[in-house]
Amino acid sequence: MVFSKPLAIAAMTGLTACSGGSEIAPINVELEETPISDELDRVFEPQTGASITFADYNTLGDRLVDSVAPDGIMSSQGLSTSGSASYRGVLSVITSIDSETTQIIGQASLGVNFSTDSISGSVDNFLSDTDQQYQGQLSLEQGNIDRTANVDREFAFSSDISGSLQASDEAPMTVTGQLFGDFYDDGEKILGIVIATTTVNGQTTDANSGAFILSQ
Fold this sequence. Notes:
The protein is α+β, with helices and mostly antiparallel strands. It is built from four helices and nine strands, in the order ααααβββββββββ. It is globular and about 50 Å long.
């Protein structure tokens, strides 16, 4: 399946759209000087007693998006054909429960095997913009790199995404779909879009779009 690249960038720009307002607040100097690896560690390995919030996911997503070079996209033919890499970051999904649409963001971990062109991973610790916690996990399976993709108009890799999530006092929600993405900055980062449906109490929504961005 082919998607336009502007759609992917628009999806990433909208990753934190539910946090309010159309203007993106500038990142302060202190945060700009903090290495992204430290920001990833703070979110994925919080100190004892510290809690992670939706705002933390916003901050991490903004930092990662701002760090991607405008012309940093890699051709799939230029990727390594050996070795592997691990990525961490954030992934958003649009959910629909009782006619109410909500954006939730979770911690994504993804592994790429360049020898076999395979991709797998998981997303968990989802939060809504009101910091509502969602139990459960989404799995990334059957992922693969398309070495023939023209990255000017096609994505370099795709993967299935599925699983079950549940907030307290809400019915379980099944998420099913696919993600499509590209490699950036010499393969250090990956970003793209999520196209998925949600099913609650036997009712399945139309496909909604989400986004993800991760870094080594």
